[in-house]
Protein 1
Amino acid sequence: MTDAIDAFARHLEQGRRLSAHTVRAYGEDVRQFLAFLQQQASPPRAWREVTHREVRRFLAGLQAARYARRSTARKLAALRAFFRFLVATGAAEGNPAVGIHSPRRERRLPAILREDEIERLLLAPDRDTPLGLRDAALLETLYSTGMRASEVVSLTVTDVAAGNDTVRVIGKGQKERLVFLGRAAREALADYLAVGRPRLLASARKSRPATDALFLNKNGTPLTDRAVRLIVRRTLERAALTARISPHSLRHSFATHLLARGADLRAVQELLGHASLATTQIYTHLTREQLQRIYDAAHPGANPPSARGTRR
């Protein structure tokens, strides 16, 4: 039964061209379901023997184990996609995950940094060292473009050559979009390319072929998603910021700050690469202070002149 999971992963990667992160997550979800099946008193011997009862019991077990609704919903989506693949390939006659409702997801607001906190974060790297130059360029790029960590580690030197202020990004589902590099990001990248990256590249073993990856680690090899998370965490500590954020929080901050300064929602949708406008709308939340400033500046009754008299 594990062979079918491997074939499903290849289908997601090569046929549907999903990201490595999504392929890995779906594969782990289906393997977790298989492990659950194998623990049953009479486990099915083939995928075609699985019924909706096993799927419901699996989901009930996740709920009892206090899995987040978002995680449970993703696992159900993975099972639906997996059995849809099995039906298409003749390995199953029906999809036992169809007709089972996903748990209603919590509507959580994304974690963001205020503009002054972003400023502290971006000034924190030590730009006198190769790694500090890299970290500064990386963080400036994340915040300037709103890119995902997986997208930024896929950048090459060619992508940002000659001080380009635009970058073409291949995002989820192999969708292409255009993002912009602000002046601070361009300057940080120029410093990194001139001094930091050559010194990091010199650290690579001579047996390894030269890489065109833009962001390198201390050994002169390409950064990973995990390394980006560690860099963000380390820079937060250096900036003395207590917020618990991830690289994706810089993407959230990018979108929120654009909207707070009057950017059009559909333009932000394009910059983020969201397929649905509803996904972008979560960023329309504003802090109480922002709302108060907007009200004070725009509403004629917010601060009336004293000579106007008392409104009754």
Protein 2
Amino acid sequence: MKFYNRTSELAELQRIKKLSFNDRSRLTVVTGRRRIGKTSLIMKTVEKTPTVYLFVGRKNEAALCGDFITVILKALDTFVPSEIRTFRSLFQFLMELATHKSFNLIIDEFQEFYNINESVYSDMQNIWDQYKDKSHMNLIVSGSVYSLMQKIFQHSKEPLFGRADNIIKLSAFDLFTLKEIVHDYYPQYINDDLLALYAFTGGVPKYVELFCDNNVLNVNGMIEFVVRDNSPFTDEGKNLLIEEFGKNYATYFSILSAISGGVNTQSEIEAALGDKSIGGQIKRLIED
């Protein structure tokens, strides 16, 4: 599917990139739920400029740094010491490089450092504070676990609090954008088809893309695609909740299950869960 919408976000990211290259380094946070199009937007922004893209997978830190070194070698055509085994050392190397070379550094799934080495955040804070005013790096970090990204950058006790120059939260496509997409891919659509697309996807770009790429943009086709065996939608809700709520996801599942069964007050839900206090979980479900 071609790139749609995001005009204001694209313009803002390009403005920041220009400032980063011509003035001093900038740190931008791009956040939003899974499948919302964060990576696509970022990569569109940095087209035709030197870019290092690092995806933080759940690996040992040394193994991860080994992968990152290979990426940096290809992206910037520069020597990287092979003995680097910590992200602290790698990030310091990149910040030093940015004192005489302008480039984009994208760190995707940034919240995963919590599972690898939480001290990375304080290490980055120290190095960023030391180099940001004398370097020219356009640093963009993104993450799909919104609650963790919010904690990393907006909780006052976290080391990277106050370090982000810009925080951009992506939302789903609005109805006007969905109408443009349907018109491009299925010109003979009727209003029921447009309504069904919005109902099934909520405007989430990845879900819209699935329908477009599989050429199912009429009501019956969408229904069959969603409910068929091995549908990509089958486990999506469960996986989203597990990722967002971590090891405590079972409690949230129990709350949602109780609500779906008609139990809809906090006291009733707590009783259904064996008199377990759930005030904090309810608050998070509402606000996050």
Protein 3
Amino acid sequence: MVSATDARWISTFLDAQAAELDAARNTRLAYGRDLKDYADWLAGRGMALATAARETVEDYLVWCDAQGLSKATRARRLSAIRQLYRFAHDEGWRDDNPAIRIKGPGATQRLPQSLSLDEVERLLDAARGKGRTPAERIRNTALMEVLYATGMRVSELVELPVAAARGDPKMILVRGKGGKERMVPLSTPARMALAAWLVQRDADDAAARKVGRPASKFLFPGNGADGHLTRQHFYLMTKDFAVQGGVDPSKVTPHTLRHAFATHLLAGGADLRVIQLLMGHADLATTE
């Protein structure tokens, strides 16, 4: 069981990530899981964060490898451990960073599968016809048209505030990783789909208020605790659209649609640095 001291180290570090670096919620959750696993491993061997040596961290990474964890997961865990110890050193909790000189396993370069223009069209057509009610079909159309038109991350899409879509904008403000904001253009089909969804959504909100339910601040409301459509739900929706449209479901995720946005722009002659800005990549190599 993790000691109270180790738990406090981790929670203080995560709070600092949120306050000082404005780290994305999903990033903080991943760091929290990784660091708890490391602390659990230490506790099981009678050790603690304050006393672990370089060899201890290396032994933990070897253990992770033996558990079958991927290179990407092991690299992420090492990164979280390094940053925790860097923070501990800055706070005066430790005199050293035992993980700073450990070489990570490196992630295997793996490009996401891309989708052809024809496959994207079939997915968009499927979204227009998929849904239990007319309202769901209008919402599904807006989700897919906006995703393909902008190349947003799925978390950015489902967390869009409704205010961002008001007034038939030609560009929409997106809050991305680390709270960084960027403007992305909307295609004509995306603007039309959004306009239709706003009419439907406003009617739904008006009906909800009549029975005492508050209006949602999100463009795509959901019934869960977050108040918006979840990433997991939308992921499953894209699989349904693939089946409906006759596209191999294994090729279709929100991320492959994001990749298709970039690939099709590049094929159309767009500058790589422009695509980098639209996708919110801090490093051009990520876009390449």
